[in-house]
Amino acid sequence: MLFNLLFSSPIVFLILASILVFSITIHEFAHALMADRLGDPTPRYKGRVSLNPLHHLDPIGTLAILLVGFGWGKPVPYDPYNLKNPVPDAAKIALAGPAINLVIAGLAGLVLNFFSPIPLLQVLLPTAIYLNVMLAVFNLLPVAPLDGSKVITAILPRQTALEYQDFMRRYGIWVLLFLILPIGGRSAISSLILPIINWLVNILV
What we know:
By secondary structure, the chain is mostly helical.
């Protein structure tokens, strides 16, 4: 786990933590910017259309990353009544975060593979690729409050979507906790998404 490096390799910990903070910040900034562009001023009023990490880090989500390797940033507030098409626009806002992480991972992959970076970047770029792919894939899980829950709501038939939303309002956080808590040394979510993360990282690296 990342937290273990704090004592064994503090410099490596600081480097990884810095990349992680940047990745979470740009992820949440993308949510806020998309909502702003779609006509909702709420994120701007809340100070979320910003690249200041302090505006975007969620204490529990950050702690989860340090302890179990998966986590999230502070959810970006928006008012669906300010959106022209609330359900599909909410899905666009949700997708903006994972999309920007994949763009960053892709750009890092291009630099790594085609521009012969200096040795330090040959160490940092694979880490940036992995962390951004991890954030994208993890946040696309269809479990509230993750981004994937809003995406699947836009895809499901209306009645099914309403039932899904009701279930997630009641039990989503418990489902998420069950998935990320390590049982027998490994979390259930690791088995679900690590193969996808590793596949994408191998393509980019």
